[in-house]
Amino acid sequence: MRQAIALVLLAGAACHSRKLPQRAATDSSARPAAPAFPLRRDSSDTSGDRPQVISDPSVVVFWLKGVDTLSSDDRASAFDDLRSYTAEVASVLADNDIQLLATRSDTLYISLPNKQRRAVLLSGLDYPYGYVLVDPGGPERILTGVYSGDDLLDELQAYFDLPDESDSGPPRSTT
């Protein structure tokens, strides 16, 4: 009898839930991509599957289920390049208050000033991965495939009208 009681107490103690530290509340539809890239190569990853509503200047990295049509080597290479080149421009985006988000959803919604939304469909593009540059109030720009860090930075500077890095230093004096 004592062994049965001890076993029940031990089982109860093992099943007793402990209070976990609370995390800061975040909107599950907007998943920051930097510093940690939350998407995985695996198409069974469901993080970021819900369509996002974009209301601020943002760069959305997308990785759709259509990548399953690529060979595993090509898929791995594309994903690693996408993650690496995104990391190269993350600080520029942060310095200019541009959000870096990630999604697996084939639809984004752009918040319009009149409380309406414009849908942006990402399925059926040249590549099932890439970037969407969004500045609400203007047209979005979709970049499919992988862009090198320099090419991506050029696209960001042109779209968001960012200053060129060479313009940021003091002017050189000439004589």
Keywords for this entry:
8 strands; alpha/beta; Glutaredoxin
Which helices and strands, and how do they pair?
Blueprint: H1 2-15, E1 31-32, E2 52-54, E3 58-63, H2 72-95, E4 99-103, E5 107-111, E6 117-121, E7 129-134, E8 141-144, H3 149-160
Parallel strand pairs: 2-5, 3-4
Antiparallel strand pairs: 1-4, 3-7, 5-6, 7-8
Under CATH, the topology can be stated as Glutaredoxin
Q: Quick one: overall form?
A: globular
Taking the sheet with the most strands, its summary is: 5 strands, mixed
| Number of helical segments with 4 or more residues | 3
Please identify the oligomeric state.
single chain
Amount of beta strand: 15-25%
The CATH class? Alpha Beta
Radius of gyration: 22 Å
What's the average pLDDT? 77
Count of discrete structural domains: 1
- The total beta strand count reads 8
